[in-house]
């Protein structure tokens, strides 16, 4: 079932091959989200911009936010850009009680021309529309939202740090605001966008490890068939907090999420809040870049899709694009399939396991150095059986090349299709 | 791992058999939740009380709410009873972004002596402590919370409708208020309690059906082994909104949640937001009252546990308690086990399927009249294969007896152990 992107009281008929919309004239149609109705309320004073080097991910907010409300009778209100500040919410609001909350993660980058750029924003808009449908929230025209995001970014462009690896994080959020306690879909909503200047997601000590460590966990399961793991719903995240703290206690940076299979295998789904990739040497010398298939338990990440695409482009006959640092003669194959913990162990034993990395909007690409294989069953005092990657402290060449390629495209230093979209 | 109910900077040692707490004197200990610090801010004018017959579940709120905040340095603030009104929340708050939100559902009933009563509140407090732990929220002393609930109910007792089947619904809620966008546990929180006068959850037309209908759904799965279905987290609920609307379109009241098993069987987990029960006639003439085991996918409902207990009590040798309307000679057996859709079909074919009902704080006990067996695969236009109960329009005698027994105990008309607790 495809998401409905517009709200309508009317019905659509096919008359002589032409779509005719018949609305009930006695009921006014709820208003669509309309970027042309934008109201801007200016801040009296602007905040000082903190030095980028000290930024903690997602802590500092910019001067403005964008807000629009949906009510069933009136539809979407005129969007407003106004000073960043608290929301006023009824304590019975659905967003606090039953969590029909969705969000997107995007970034604005400063190009060499000084213009702010978005990275493949249309994919975020399409995913947001699917999330909205899954959470049964009021739908809206995502083209209008994208126009509003560009307008907000243009207004706030002084907040984009002009430093490699830094950007302005964009968090479009939609929350259910129905105030009845009966368990039912929220027929009212608040859509807002907030911005936060941000640097590298994982900060390592100077001269320290370039990689992160994972603990493979199957005692807690992030997502399952028939669940919501394939959508960007806020409710997918809080269940990770407890296992994440247990992994931290045991000395691991993030969780490798597993789904136990009926045959006893432990299927790999995601890493923390990122997609999982493994690079495996083949008998013919080529390299398979493997990521779990989008079976409904995996978030269809924009960076995931972009990495698969760039891997294919590197090995295409035209050779018009090469992943930085990798030889043109190295053939890479992008593969979506099931990956289990046993697969990793077997590839390691055979000497074919080259790299493991993960991708996401926040971290872009992060290399994995080691994986604790025994989950939470071992106490922190007992050493977990570990899979240690060949270069466990350094970012692998494939991960590093993808990271650099994406950074070049995102900041407009490298033109690639229409992936980088200037805000104007 | 058992939940930590108190927050402490110190460590606890056993010295000569006595627990001694050693706190770090340089850091002040965050304050515990302390009911004796209660502040009451009175309303200037009180709301008029609407006629109970027109109440929609969870819509009307009373005059007051109770609020207390947790900050890592200072701990729990002095709890405050103040006029019901909106919360002020940062747009980046964890509760809106990642959903570490938990709640409880309880009710206050008016006894024949005019005093408000709670039903087994200690079970709610224990479950809340487990939910708080699972959502990695700051913990608190639930005895202090129960004292505060009783104080709020006493203040608001004029809102408890004095009508059979009516009560004052109590919604303790804890939400994460951390404002960083990094995916991490919320180290700050807001705890609040709101109240709503309420009548029967399912309203039927006068003279209409006393039962509800279910659509058995396995395309969407509510809970999974290793997931959070066994805890009362807000994030378990929003994923039901879309499938519920599809079930409504197909003419069914609620969803019968299924978990597909590796062997192809469809295991029954819950009904909507309620626990599932089936009454099956045995060869020896006794009746098994069966509900799914608490395997981590099932919410340990207070009404569920109470029904299992009353079923056992009815058949105990002392015969000091009988379920109203059931003969003393009828032997009932409370059984927790796996139940599949095939089990229901087989029992129906054999003529042994007596009743299906569901239990929860809101509805107490609701009888099921029919179950659509083919899930969402059929379109609304095609008739679903249905399992129709022998008395499909009337509440079955076992469900009705349990409903009446619970009502009598909850309102203090029947003394049963210490299940009904007077607020004073």
TrEMBL record, chains A, B:
Spans annotated as Disordered: 1-30
SUPFAM superfamilies per the UniProt record, alphabetical: D-aminoacid aminotransferase-like PLP-dependent enzymes (SSF56752)
A cellular-component GO term for this protein: mitochondrion
Entry keywords, A to Z: Amino-acid biosynthesis, Aminotransferase, Branched-chain amino acid biosynthesis, Pyridoxal phosphate, Transferase
One of the GO BP terms on file: L-leucine biosynthetic process
Catalytically driven reaction(s): L-isoleucine + 2-oxoglutarate = (S)-3-methyl-2-oxopentanoate + L-glutamate; L-leucine + 2-oxoglutarate = 4-methyl-2-oxopentanoate + L-glutamate; L-valine + 2-oxoglutarate = 3-methyl-2-oxobutanoate + L-glutamate
Keyword Amino-acid biosynthesis carried by entry: yes
InterPro entries named in the record: Aminotrans_IV, Aminotrans_IV_CS, Aminotransferase-like, B_amino_transII, BCAT-like_C, BCAT-like_N, BCAT_family
Location of N6-(pyridoxal phosphate)lysine modifications: 232
UniProt entry tagged with the keyword Amino-acid biosynthesis: yes
PROSITE patterns according to UniProt: AA_TRANSFER_CLASS_4 (PS00770)
Cofactor(s) needed for function: pyridoxal 5'-phosphate
GO molecular function: L-isoleucine-2-oxoglutarate transaminase activity; L-leucine-2-oxoglutarate transaminase activity; L-valine-2-oxoglutarate transaminase activity
EC number per UniProt: 2.6.1.42
Biased composition (Polar residues): 1-25
UniProt cross-references to PANTHER family, sorted A to Z: BRANCHED-CHAIN-AMINO-ACID AMINOTRANSFERASE, SUBGROUP IIII AMINOTRANSFERASE
Similarity comment text for this entry: Belongs to the class-IV pyridoxal-phosphate-dependent aminotransferase family.
Protein name: Branched-chain-amino-acid aminotransferase
Species the sequence originates in: Amanita muscaria (strain Koide BX008)
